[in-house]
Design brief:
Number of helices: 11
Shape: elongated
Strand order of the largest sheet: 3-2-1-4-5-6
Distance between the termini: 55 Å
Strand content: 5-15%
Largest sheet: 6 strands, mixed
Helix content: 40-55%
Order of helices and strands: HHHHHHEHHEHEEEEHH
Radius of gyration: 23 Å
Amino acid sequence: MSAKKPPRPKNLTSMKMLGKQLGAARRAMGYTQSALGPLVQVDEETIASIEQGRRALKPDLAALLDEALQTKGMLSAGVANLPEIDQFPMWAELYMEHEREAIALSLYANQVLPGLLQTRAYAEAVLRERVPAYGKEEIEAKVAGRVDRQEILQRRDPPTLSFVIWEPVLHLGIGGPEAQAEQLRHLRSCAELPSVSLQFLPMGSPSHAGLDGPFILLETPDHQHLAYIEGQRGSQWVSDADEVSRLARKYAMLRTQALTTHDSKGLLDRLLGEQ
């Protein structure tokens, strides 16, 4: 008897997208969820769960739905081609879409270096610390996605990028001495990019406006100001003007408390000299 294959990791973002396609096709045919269920021999809750991305659409049910909704195999093709691993959750994908188009980004970090500044080795080391652990393929996919995002730093017309990073992040031994040294050299190189402002908030500073945690401020091409916050329990978009203003004022205070860009380069030079 051959061993059963392990279940594929849930590709949550893709499941939600496929669920939205099902919902659109159902409405186009004029069915409610309760009316569609009996036609494909499932209950209303199953249809609702699939449309919301909470339950995977199985191949046999996809075939029945294609027939009932006259979608010509679209749902079956969607199920067959779902990626095994989502690189990013839905909120993060939305952020990265805005990140690619942004004209200005301001990032405060106090745990690890921002993804836009991470080397491949550092990114892999960070992802390996995740509990529960990612699988090997999932780590590879996420590292590749993180490195690909960094192309915005080298564009002909890059966004204006400001980073404020709490100094203890530089002293983390993530990945070991070689990875740490490579990461410091990479930061020093990034600090010379004309579109990048890199500042470190020193450990000895008596003031610290970022004690509540990391956040990102973003300006879109149509001058909409947004914020993005990641934490232990997930990520959050902030579009309310008052809330974004509070974070912008906090970031402005952090920049005054941090070392200047010139002194921040000096800090990196000193750390590299100690390697």
